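Form P-L/3: holo structure prediction, ligand DGJ.
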Amino acid sequence: MPAVLPPVSFDPARGVAELRTPNSLYALRVDADGSPRHLYWGPPLDRAALDTLPAPHSPARSSFEAEAAADELAPQSGARFGPAGLQVRFADGTRGAQWRPAEHRITDGELRILLTDRHFPLAAELCYRVRPDSDVIERWTELRHTGGPDDGPITVDRLDSASWTLPPLSDYRISHLVGGWNSEFQLLRDRLPVTETVLTSRRGLTGHHAGPWLALDDGSATEEHGEVWSTTLAWSGSWRITVHRDPVGRTTWTGGFGHEGLSWTLHPGEQLTTPVFAGLHTSHGFGAASRAWHDHVRAHVLPDAEHDRPVVYNSWEATHFDVDHRGQLRLARRAAALGAELFVLDDGWFGARRHDRAGLGDWTPHPGAFPDGLRPLADEVHRLGMAFGLWVEPEMVNRDSDLYRAHPDWVVHSPTRTATELRHQLVLNFARPEVEAWALRTLDRLVRDNGVDWLKWDANRAFTEAAWPGRPDPDRLWIDHTRAVYRIMDRLRADHPHLRIEACAGGGGRVDLGILARTDQAWTSDNTDPVDRIAIQHGYSQLFPAATMAAWITDSPNGATGRATPLRFRAHVAMAGVLGLGGDLTAWTEDELAEAADLVARYKRIRPLVQRGRQYRLSAPDGVTAVHYAAADGTEHAVLVWRPATRFGHQPPALRLPALDAHAHYLDADTGLRYSGAVLRHRGIDLDLPAGDCASRLIHLRRHHP
Ligand code: DGJ
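OUTPUT (holo model):
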């Protein structure tokens, strides 16, 4: 019997640390010069095999080459010429760290490599955590000024959470997410160029344009086959990840919070802790990588993954800023009749907010629209059997607001620069303790006084001219703002245990593992056109589980794209995540309302599969795509099939369902038809899609025990 190896170990004799997950091994070695260097990341190896790994060597040996071994966090000293994960400057102008022989500590699934500089009062801890049920390795760094009052400050120009290294591969390919407002989470898969490739957000938010997730493979991995290494940064402000494929065939990447050019000061006794940069290796393709991320996010990131995400009705697309008690109540009644479980009053309910130019920051109900406040609406919504949710955008302010008039200095700004307004708004500096305290007080009161069960927390602009006049360490606001957002959300949840929070930033502009640790789901995109959503949801699903992916059925033609689509297609696309409704229900016909009610009821039947099951992305010829959600125990399955455009009026070929058990039989929960698992796996199911564009189908199968 092979010995069971502990999940975390460090052997001082070999200087080797091992992190073992159920299906992978990550190993590093601390060399005599104190530097932790990468050793291995891949399928499990036993110790004897690990010890046979050849020392890394560069094929090009000369005095111009970088050292052959890759660092766990490159410290900007020695023969290292790639992107440094740690860049520090000491008071006398010396740059970079040089470590003493390292120590280590292991506690409860956590390894810490303790590093101290040979000369200066600087200590770093490289931290690693593994969990018994996850292949994800979580890494972060803690940096401390260990000096006394007489030591000068240390300037930190870069402090990454971790650097990662691939084994030598025959080629390298990168998968990552790009986009923009209304087009988030577009998956790109490109050959990795021999250069430094930077993925970044300089916007103070995670960003619509790039996401802090990437996957690397040798160019041959498919959805269900091949080795894939992927990583993601759990941070909701600016960030940077630099992937370095060097000309001698080594690929490493380093990442952390903050974009280039920022620097932070560490005074004696101070510490800077990075967010987690998590990594995952799988041998079974992009689909298995996504499933492992989904499991990890549900088990170890989301605050409450087990509760069913409610079917929401959100009023934004129906009424925009034109909200009042009567109009919202009319929508709420219709929504409740369709089966909605949560009614969210969106933007426009407060202050002088009749458009996007005024009122942001003044979080009291508009007296004309809600003469008796929000409580009567909340009470009615509750009476209709729904939870009551409220849209807020606490980090932002219009110049035309009482808040700005009272506290013009609360916004991030530089007195000598013109403050750029985006959507007529400015960013409040949450790094200022009094602003954080105001936001917490305001939100707490809103929730307490109005029976609020749900906050949709929006943020509709990027940071510009981000300075904090009079503050000696002004770049800290890029970190401290985000941390204040986290703290406020955490506090609100702790003080109001029933409260749920939806993350939003003009759609999916702030979705990452940092914000998801204190929210329940994210508003995926303001683009609710189902054809566009298929691509958006495909990218989103690479990392995030469906239980966090809010998706509404809205009006047709779609407000953003003008495309007309059948209700059933809109619903089937939205059912792949957390189903919601977002259209002007007062304009829907009786037939549409009846069909929508039926579709909502069908969603509720498959909801546990979508929100807690395992996801398989399927694609078939003729532009047909599908997503299969399987119950963890394999007893129940939901397959959503979409064909945006018909070809020649032909039926698509049968769709194979490889996640089914070939030895089992299945009954279609709607038609009662009985299928052999082997046939559905190896030959496929006939789709019988309705004629025309935007055809779709929901297949609901139950394992059958004859
Ligand atoms: C952007 C969000 O993504 C929308 O859903 C809506 O809440 C608007 N903001 C309101 O201003």
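COMMENT: Residues 316, 346-347, 391, 458, 460, 504, 506-507, 523, 526 surround DGJ (CB under 6 Å).
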